[in-house]
Amino acid sequence: MLSNRPSVGIDVAKNFCFYAAVSPTCTTFLKSFKALNNVSRGRGC
Q1: Does the CA dihedral 24-11-32-40 come out positive or negative?
Q2: What is the pLDDT at residue 42?
Q3: Domain boundaries defined on the chain
Q4: At a CB cut-off of 8 Å and minimum separation 6, what does 17 contact?
Q5: Cα separation of 21 and 15, whole Å?
Q6: Residue closest to 19 by CA, chosen among 28, 29, 9
Q7: pLDDT computed for residue 44 by the predictor
Q8: Burial bucket for residue 34 (CB in 10 Å: 0-12, 13-18, 19+)
Q9: pLDDT at position 1
Q10: What is the mean pLDDT of each run of 10 residues along the chain (45 residues)?
């Protein structure tokens, strides 16, 4: 089944996450980037 929507991937680690997205034609839709998980201890999500 073909889709016209981009595909997004998220790699979750303890202190950071990597995000990436590709178009239906397998070209880069969004340059991959790293985001820090900086929730304070004891406060939860």
Answers
A1: positive
A2: 52
A3: 7-36
A4: 10, 11, 34, 35, 37
A5: 21
A6: 9
A7: 47
A8: exposed
A9: 55
A10: 80 91 86 84 50
Amino acid identity, position 11: D
Determine the length of the chain.
45
Residue type, 44: G
Residue recorded with tokens 């939860």: 44
**Position of tokens 């979750």?**
12
Is the separation of the CB atoms in 33 and 21 below 8 Å?
no
Residue with tokens 């790699």: 11
Give helix then strand counts, H and E, for the chain: 0, 3
